[in-house]
Amino acid sequence: MSPNEEETLAFYILIGLWVLKLLIGLLMKFFYEEERNETFGYRTEFAMRNADTWLVANRYFGNALFISTLCFLTLEILLFFVIGKAQVTLLFSAFSISLMIVPAFALTESHLDKIFDKNGNRRQS
Question: What is the pTM for the complete model shown?
Answer without folding.
Answer: 0.81
